[in-house]
Amino acid sequence: MVSRRGLLGRLAVAASSAGFAGCSRILARSAGDPGVEGLPANPRADELPVRQYAQSATLTTDDDGNTVPPRYRRLLLLDLDEEPSLQAEQVVERAMRTLEAAYDWSPEGLFHALGWGTAYFDRLGELSAAPISEPEVLSRTDDPALLGFDAVLVLASDVPSHLSAVEHAMFGAGDDLNGESIDGDNALGEVFSVSERRTGFVGEGLPAEHADAEGVPGDALSPEDTEFMGFFSDRDGTQASEGRVAVRDGQFADGTTMHLSHLRLDLETWYDAFDEAGRVARMFSPEFSPEDVSGFGTEVPFSDAVQEHAADFDVVGHQEKVAQTRRDGEPVILRRDFNTVDGGRPGVHFMSFQRSLADFRSTRKAMNGWYVRDDSEAITDRENNGILDFVTVTSRANFYVPPRNRRSFPMR
């Protein structure tokens, strides 16, 4: 493989001969200018969605009409090893096009997106103008690490070996990715290094397969469970649409903001302290029974009576709290969270897309449920307050996910 410095040095000569040398910003790209200077147009641009995070059109649906998400996930949190430049931009774009050539845009192939973090925009001196800001502490009961990365590569597939193959080819010593050649011209590892890796899964039977992890009560999980806490949470009616979370106009149009948290789960208490009815009350609402939940299709009913439920039942549900943030009846965030046993214990990597991070913050503050404590002495910042007593936030980070044709070094 060609070394990073050798490759970028070679590209620097080419850029200089084209009259680009010495420019801090090689090309002033506007929202309508596609692609990367010096490269031909993306040959698959017409086959793939403009929005990197768009995948719903290719997903299958369950018997209730909900889209079925890809089963395996991998997030590679990246640090830049080179300063932003035209040369690095070309390498990154070639690498992403290689992923597109190697696998179909489908659950059986590979979904992928490249997002850019607060450290990158701060490096450019453009964080104040970026669509994202530094992560914040958003509750009185958590003390998460507030993290900053240059970028994140989001990978998802029904075939777990695809995720490993991508990481090995792009950041290891691999020279082939499903028939596509890899060298110094198109390897992400020529520009980035992997700072952290987040892995996980979501889908029927997968939580039970990880019952050997410490803190997972295996006898509580059934082969039908899709998530560690025992409830299906990906009903389409509780999710913002892919269009709803897109930035509408300006230089960031058709991109979106992304929030990433790691949540540690206390599953032993969750399953030991309550029967199914108690878990339903805390996950959804005390007005529902387990039989009600089993009949939910693409939507969870929303009665808008959180404070009344606090006074009448001394408990409120997670779902009914976060539903308070809907606008015109529609959710404002698109969740792509997934189970994990990273670190040897059960957790959730909570990944969400939203037009503005303000939408995420307002949703999290609604989840805090501080406003219902005056309606019941039994409700505290954690106890009887949705699922807060069983979830601890350990870290937060924010990213911007550009549209496909501007995914390489936005604002450079």
Structure overview:
This protein is an alpha+beta fold and 412 residues long. It contains eleven helices and twelve strands. The strands form two sheets. Strands 1, 2, 3, 4, 7, 8, 9, 10, 11 and 12 form a ten-stranded mixed sheet that branches. The protein has a two-stranded antiparallel ribbon with strand order 5-6. A hairpin with a 6-residue loop joins strand 10 and strand 11. The chain starts with a helix and ends in an 11-residue tail after the last strand. The N terminus is likely disordered.
Low-confidence stretches: 1-32
Number of helical runs? 11
What proportion of the residues form beta strands (DSSP E)?
15-25%
Structural class: alpha+beta
Give average pLDDT, whole number: 92
Question: What spatial form do the alpha-carbon principal axes imply?
Answer: globular
The main β sheet shows up as: 10 strands, mixed
End-to-end distance: 27 Å
Number of separate strands: 12
Radius of gyration: 22 Å
So what's the oligomer here? single chain
**Proportion in helices:** 10-25%
Question: Could you state the order of secondary-structure elements as H and E?
Answer: HEHEHEEHEEEHEHHHHHEEEHE
